[in-house]
């Protein structure tokens, strides 16, 4: 209940200042939520934030073999490298969510264009990690 009150107070404070359209939408959603579902709603919000900025890719990362312990580092690297965007491309050739270099695509059983596919990219990044460790990414 304390968490619910804290979130409610934070939302009220945010609403009194200039806010983004996303914040306004969240506020409107909060205002229309069923009071009986409020605790579950807050729990979902907390869980989403716990997964980090690239949380939408967490389940896929775990599915391809990254561990829950590795996820916080994968999340930070992914955000720094690609901004969580699977179509990210760097003039150096680094591609996709984890900005994997095209030379690795063959080792991972594909071609450089496959690195734009989030599943292939995360799986190939796991292979790169296995060979070179975290220092394979300059943002580490």
Descriptive account of the structure:
By secondary structure, the chain is mainly α. The protein has two domains: 49 residues, no CATH class; 82 residues, Lysozyme, CATH 1.10.530.10. It has seven helices and no strands.
Describe the protein's topology.
Layout: H1 2-16, H2 21-31, H3 38-50, H4 58-64, H5 71-82, H6 103-107, H7 118-132
Text of the CATH class of the largest domain: Mainly Alpha
Q: Please give the largest β-sheet.
A: none
Question: How many domains make up the coordinates?
Answer: 2
Class computed from helices, strands and strand pairing = mainly alpha
Compute the gyration radius: what is it? 19 Å
Give the name of the CATH architecture of the largest domain.
Orthogonal Bundle
Could you give a quick summary of the protein structure above?
The chain has 140 residues and is mainly α.
Keywords, separated by commas or semicolons:
7 helices, Lysozyme, single chain, 140 residues, 56% helix, 0% strand, 2 domains, mainly alpha
């Amino acid at each position: 209940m304390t968490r619910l009150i804290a979130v409610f107070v934070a939302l009220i404070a945010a609403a009194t200042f200039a806010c983004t359209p996303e914040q306004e939408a969240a506020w409107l959603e909060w205002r229309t939520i069923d009071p009986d579902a409020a605790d579950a709603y807050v729990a979902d919000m907390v869980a989403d934030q716990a997964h980090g900025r690239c949380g939408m890719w967490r389940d896929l990362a775990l599915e391809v073999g990254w561990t829950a312990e590795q996820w916080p580092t994968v999340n930070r690297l992914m955000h720094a490298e690609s901004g969580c965007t699977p179509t990210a491309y760097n003039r150096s050739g680094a591609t996709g969510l984890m900005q994997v270099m095209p030379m690795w695509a063959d080792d991972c059983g594909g071609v450089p264009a496959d690195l734009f596919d989030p599943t292939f990219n995360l799986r190939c990044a796991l292979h790169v990690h296995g060979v070179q460790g975290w220092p394979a990414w300059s943002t580490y």
